[in-house]
Design goal:
seven-stranded mixed β-sheet, 17 helices, 515 residues
Length: 515
């Protein structure tokens, strides 16, 4: 797909005196970067290997069912509104965003449930119902989350962190907020009920982090939900990506699909352009990579000697977990399963033990916890009338452990286990109504998205792999090279990758137009 204002224009002749920015990857981070650079005045071309924009947020159509492949939850919509405003556009005029309440329901094997709600008083009522003795501790956790939001999200997340001094001057605040403590340990200090501890600490899993090892700074996600809500875009996140391509086209930019980048060309220590898999060479004044940071440095810059992000350094890095995702449609079920809402989390019998199997041991456990997405209760465009579309995700080990899972052999048996859990706990009789089906495993993430080890969210956001310790937005490996997306600062998740483009706009110089 080629998207631009005038199909007759060529990127080499349309604006011959305007500096050219080449963006690798049409994921949300790459598209947001293209929008920011277009607003600055760059001539922008985005190159993407898939056949539609959105990266992990793209979709597939099967027998009238739309499977939204990646992010399903939109938090902090203000970040998207700010992005659109920077381009002189109105986000809400381009995207139909719906606030959800409840945000999601969490269920445990003993039959207990917890619904995360939009209004603070409704949340407190849920806490009091589940564990009345923990209400005061919950209130304290909420205050903790807000403090971490104001520091970690507002102060750090929206500004560059590529200078060591940027880290040194905030270390006292990190210490005061006990960033050394894990988010699970922090929740355990505030509430006693194990179910409530899980409900307050599981959020790092949404961005690829082990709650028992990532910093307590990620308690800020609870405040993000409280402050901004949880939303769903009609048409899925792919509809946001498509709206982004229209903004880029309106700026005169180009989005080239089915155009895979093979190498970043570096000369005299500066990024000079790209070579595509087809052999085409694309000169550029700056290069922005929304490809995984590991893939960027290990493959796209394989012929350029690295100082920091060497192959050995990448091998020593800890990566986020893998994902097993089953997308399926059901026939004639629109009136069935009334308790299965838009978002449901089904907990297995273990929390810490299962997380340890996934992140530390690299073992595919017999038990599982599932995130179930049923967008058809909100969005009629995802399924034929009377039907439903589902997305079920199970965190699993990535492929980089010593004895990686053979998904060629395990995919279907594991899918059947997932189906058994669904039929037992949420969707009785599911098998009789199944329609089209797709399975993504870590091998799919490796092959489709070029994710190292098939990791779902790039480098794991542990404390020594966050902020300055993470791959920088302003690359230290070549001048004129910039990185955005889940593997860079500030991190994974829709707000994180959108913010990485905001940081990019601060470190990329304004274009100098030759006269």
């Amino acid at each position: 797909m080629l998207t631009r204002l005038d199909p007759a224009l060529s990127p080499d002749t349309a604006h011959p005196v305007t500096p050219h920015a080449a963006v690798i990857g049409a994921g949300l981070g790459g598209l947001a970067s293209a929008m920011r650079l277009g607003a600055k005045g760059y001539r922008v071309t985005v190159f993407d290997r898939l056949d539609s924009p959105g990266g992990r947020g793209s979709h597939l159509i099967r027998d009238g069912h739309r499977f939204d492949l990646g992010p399903t939850i939109v938090t902090v919509p203000q970040g998207l509104r700010d992005l659109w405003a920077a381009c002189g556009r109105d986000f809400d005029a381009d995207v139909d965003l719906r606030a959800l309440d409840p945000f999601y329901e969490i269920r445990w094997p003993d039959g207990s449930r917890f619904a995360a709600r939009a209004k603070p008083e409704a949340m407190r009522a849920e806490v009091a119902r589940l564990s009345p003795g923990d209400l005061a501790g919950y209130d304290r956790f909420v205050r903790d989350a807000e403090a971490r939001y104001r520091f970690g999200f507002v102060e750090l997340g929206r500004r560059p962190m590529h200078r060591l001094w940027d880290l040194i001057k905030v270390l006292p605040k990190f210490a005061w907020l006990r960033a050394d403590r894990s988010v699970a340990a922090h929740a355990a200090r505030r509430v006693r009920d194990p179910r409530l501890q899980m409900a307050l600490s599981f959020h790092p899993l949404f961005i690829g982090g082990d709650p028992f090892h990532v910093t307590s700074m990620y308690a800020l996600v609870s405040h993000l939900e409280k402050e901004f809500g949880v939303h769903y875009a009609i048409g899925g996140v792919a509809a946001i990506a498509e709206a982004m391509t229209r903004v880029i086209a309106g700026q005169g930019g180009i989005v080239r699909q089915n155009a895979e980048v093979d190498e970043i060309l570096v000369k005299d220590g500066r990024a000079r352009g790209l070579r595509l898999v087809s052999g085409e060479v694309v000169p550029a004044d700056i290069v922005v990579s929304n490809a995984d940071a590991g893939h960027t440095y290990d493959h796209l810059m394989r012929n350029h000697q690295k100082r920091r992000w060497t192959p050995a350094r990448l091998r020593r890095s800890r990566w986020s977990m893998g994902l097993f995702v089953w997308y399926f449609g059901t026939k004639g079920t629109a009136g069935m399963w009334p308790e299965a809402g838009h978002h449901t989390i089904l907990n297995g019998p273990r929390y810490k033990g299962l997380v340890r199997d996934i992140f530390i041991k690299g073992r595919l456990a017999d038990d599982m916890s599932l995130y179930v997405h049923r967008p058809s209760v909100t969005d009629p465009t995802v399924a034929p009338e009377g039907d439903d579309t589902f997305y079920v995700l199970s965190p699993v080990p990535h492929l980089g452990h010593g004895d990686p899972v053979d998904w060629q052999a395990e995919a279907e048996p594991y899918r059947q286990k997932v189906q058994n859990v669904l039929e037992d706990q949420l969707l009785p009789g599911l098998g009789a109504h199944l329609g089209p089906s797709e399975i993504f495993t870590p091998e799919t993430f490796r092959d489709r998205y070029l994710s190292p080890h098939g990791a779902g969210f790039s480098i794991e956001p542990r404390i020594l792999q966050s902020a300055w310790f993470r791959p920088h937005n302003l690359s230290e490996e070549a001048r004129g090279l910039y990185l955005v997306g889940a593997g860079t600062h500030p991190g994974a998740g829709v707000p994180g990758v959108i913010m990485s483009a905001e940081v990019l706009a601060q470190v990329v110089p304004d274009p100098v137009v030759a006269r």
